[in-house]
Structure formats: C-alpha cells, structure tokens
Specification:
By secondary structure, the protein is an alpha+beta fold. About 35% of the residues lie in helices and about 15% in strands. The chain is built from 9 helices and 13 strands. The strands form 4 sheets. A 5-stranded antiparallel beta sheet has the order 3-4-5-6-11. The protein has a 4-stranded antiparallel beta sheet with strand order 7-8-9-10, with no helix packed on it. The chain is elongated, with a radius of gyration of 37 Å.
Length: about 350
C-alpha cells in the first residue's frame, strides 16, 4: 500500500516536517533536526501489476516451503538409513542425511525469503517519526496503538491478498510436521515388552560366572549367586537388553527364617530367586548381608529384606523386588516355573 492510500488523519502531525525539513537551531536546541529524507515510492506502490508479481513470488516461496516439508517427511520414511549417494564435490555421503538436510534447509530458507520479500516489496516502507512519551500509557496512547495496529494490519495486505495469506498459513502449518516426524527416532513403542522377560516355565537357572546350570547343592546357606536364563549368551545382540530384565539373585535361607508365606511357597528348600534389578532406577544389586538377609543397592542405598518378600526397608525404592517362582526338574537342576508376575526394575506409569 502506498503512502497516498493512508488516511491523512492516521499520519503523524509532524509527517510533512519529518521528510526533508530542517529545523532552525536556537539556544534551547543547539542542534538542527535534519529530519528524514524524502520518501521514494517503490514500483509496487504505484504499479499494481508489479505488486501482483511480488505477491506471486512470495506465494511461490511459501509453496516451495510446503513442498520441501512434504519432501522431508517422504525422505525420512522412504530412504534407507544406510544408503549412500555420490554428490559432487562432496563425494559419497549418507543419502538420508543429505535429503533431510536439503529439504529442511529449503523449507526454512523459503519461509524466511518469502517474509523478507513480502516486507520489502508489499508492506509499507514509509518512515514515521514519533515523539518519546511517558512509560505510562494514556487512553489516547492506547487508542493510537490500536489505530497503528489496524493500520499495520491493513498495510500488510493480509486481508486483501488472499493467495499470499493462504500460502503463508500453509507453509507455517506444515513446517512443524518435520519435528513431529522426528519423534519416530525416539524408538518403537514398548508395547508390553517391559512386562515380560526371557524367564518361562522350564527355563534352567544358569550361573552367571560358570555358565553352568545350577543344582540346589550349588547354593549354600548365606551365599549370593547370580543367575541368567539358559540360552542367553553374552555375544547375543540383545544380551544387554534381556539381561537388564532377567538377571537373578539366588540366595539360600533356612526355611524357618522365611517370614513371607508366598516367598516360601515359591522357593525350593529355602532357595529363593529375586530380580537383581533395583526398583528405584534400575541399578544392579550386589551387596548381601548374611545375618540379616538384607541386600543393598550401591547406587542410592535402597535396602530389601530377602527373608520377608524382598520388601523395602530403607531408601527411595518404591516397591519390593519381584520374585521368580522356581523348582527342580527331573535332572535335578533348578528351573523357573514361569515368568515374573510383575514388571522388573523401576516403576513406570503403565504398571498395574
């Protein structure tokens, strides 16, 4: 919008003086005010065809941003993460990274370039001098601010140039989808994987140190033995993931010293099997006190009583250690009689 289109009553009172006028210096104001240079109209201010060309250019940039955002999403889904391409002069680079960087860069650049071109060619460029005023706003000032806001909204041409407005809204609405798609890198949904471990009926308890199945005679009263499920080897690609849920502590307690009825039923001749993973933040428990049958987590000193259902007696842990029901198979080896009946490790919101 040109300066001629602005209503005269909305212009500052000193507008005529501000452009090219020079005030006279006096004793009170020893420095002359040079004012502002005369305003020069742009081509778009006096030629509607030029304004339409600028509008189409801005709309094209916003549309290009939308297409680049869609390209980002398509590339993220369609291009394998291990594919490489040759790009001169960069050489062989990862195709997915190149596509994501290119499309995201184009999307951002197009929005920025559209905003700059819009401001430089279609928004008003008339320089307005305004007097300093007190911090406290008077009703007149508030009215002037609202009038200036309405004037700025009119000069932005959002209401009149619908193509420009709609493509801008489209570009700004689509661009955040890039960040939403990136949430996929947080990993697959856990589903019910946190509720289950490798333990199942018939799985042998294997000594973590000797890698041999355990017999009841291998577990002495007062000793602490660590066990894992059979067929889980350290060289397996999922070893760390599975052992973090399936690691066991094996302790033998005199049956008459076991206070919890279910613990006694799930044990074999006083041999009890509990999860080794602390229910606070998941640290491995390794400190055992023979006389009290207490185990201590070295991270935050959560203490559990293995003679009383592994209940928490000290520290920040929120619940007892899960117990694994065990027995002996026909060959005399200790075996699991099922999986844990509750999730192991720290509490999580799905726990029920």
């Amino acid at each position: 919008m040109s300066s001629q289109d602005i209503p005269e009553e909305n212009l500052p009172a000193e507008q005529e003086h501000a452009h090219g006028a020079v005030s006279v210096a006096d004793e009170k104001n020893p420095f002359a005010d040079p004012g502002l240079p005369p305003h020069e109209h742009r081509t778009q201010d006096i030629d509607e065809r030029a304004a339409k060309r600028s509008e189409r250019a801005v709309a094209f940039l916003f549309t290009l941003s939308m297409l680049a955002t869609v390209g980002f999403i398509v590339a993220y889904v369609a291009i394998p993460h291990d594919k490489s391409v040759f790009i001169f002069p960069l050489g062989h680079i990862n195709a997915l990274n190149f596509a994501l960087g290119l499309t995201l860069g184009v999307s951002l650049f197009a929005i920025g370039a559209a905003a700059v071109h819009w401001a430089r060619t279609l928004m008003s460029d008339v320089e307005i001098a305004d007097e300093r005023h007190a911090i406290e706003a008077t009703p007149e000032v508030k009215a002037k601010v609202m009038a200036d806001f309405r004037q700025g909204a009119t000069e932005s041409a959002l209401g009149r140039r619908k193509l420009l407005r709609n493509t801008m809204f489209g570009a700004l609405a689509l661009f955040p989808l890039s960040g939403v798609v990136l949430l996929r890198d947080l990993g697959p949904l856990p589903e019910d994987k946190l509720r289950h471990t490798l333990w199942a009926k018939g799985k042998l308890l294997v000594n973590m140190n000797t890698n041999e199945p355990l017999r009841p005679s291998d577990v002495a009263v007062g000793s602490l033995t660590f066990a894992k499920p059979e067929d889980l080897e350290e060289h397996d690609h999922n070893f760390q993931t599975e052992i973090a849920k399936a690691a066991l502590m094996i302790v033998r307690i005199q049956p008459e010293n076991i206070k919890d009825k279910r613990e006694l039923e799930w044990s074999h001749e006083g041999i009890v099997a509990y999860s080794k993973i602390c229910t606070h933040v998941g640290c491995p428990i390794s400190l055992y006190e023979q006389q009290t049958h207490h185990v201590l987590c070295p991270c935050h000193q959560s203490t559990f009583d293995l003679s009383d259902g592994a209940r928490v007696i000290f520290g920040p842990a929120g619940h007892a250690l899960p117990q694994l029901r065990i027995g002996v198979n026909d060959e005399g080896y200790l075996e699991a009689l099922g999986d844990f009946e509750e999730p192991v490790g720290p509490a999580f919101w799905e726990r029920g």
